[in-house]
Amino acid sequence: MTAAIFHRKRRKLKSEINVVPYIDVMLVLLIIFMVTAPLLTLSVDVKLPSSTAKALDNKQEPVIVIAYPDGRLGLQLPGDKQPRVVDNAQLAEQLAPIKAQQGEDLRVLLAGEADAPYQRVIDATEALRKARVTNVVLWTNAR
After folding, report:
1. Cα–Cα distances in angstroms (integers) from residue 129 to residues 92, 96, 120, in the given order
2. Transmembrane residues, as ranges (predicted)?
3. How far is residue 138's CA from residue 125's CA, in Å, rounded to a whole number?
């Protein structure tokens, strides 16, 4: 017997990526986005109220209270160039005559120095509450 020699035909490996399935997926996604995009632009007309009221003209300068990192408070009264350093009890004492004069119109700007922890600002708010000051605004850009 003769030995049968089998020659196998070797297939050459393809190094190409078949992109047809990817194109199909992209076309389906494109159709989905084309259908849903007009639905996302629906809006509701809102008619805002209008008013002829003018802003309040308050000519009084506000009192400025500054919370320092070490727990002290700075009090700058109208007309003062620099804030004076006070503690919580002195703050109530010095604000009492101004509060009696201006009443509920007393405006206080409360500022905290950049290094001061937020707890110091809360402590200053508590001191202002004890002084019965109700119109307090947090000042975000002090000095």
Report:
1. 9, 12, 14
2. 21-42
3. 10
Backbone dihedral angles phi then psi of residue 9, each to the nearest 5 degrees: -85, 120
Question: How many structural domains does the chain have?
Answer: 1
User: Which domain range does residue 92 map to?
Assistant: 63-139
Q: Which two tokens stand for residue 80?
A: 């003062």
Angle at 117 between CA 74 and CA 131, to 5 degrees: 45
Q: How many residues does the chain have?
A: 143
pTM for this structure? Answer: 0.56
Q: Is 103 left (phi over 0), alpha (psi -120 to 50) or beta?
A: left
In angstroms, the CA 118 to CA 124 distance is: 10
d(CA 141, CA 67): 13
Residues with pLDDT less than 50, the chain: 142-143
Q: Using an 8 Å Cβ cutoff, are 140 and 113 in contact?
A: no
Output the domain CATH number for residue 74: 3.30.420.270
List pLDDT tens digits, range 61-84: 888 999 888 888 999 988 888 888
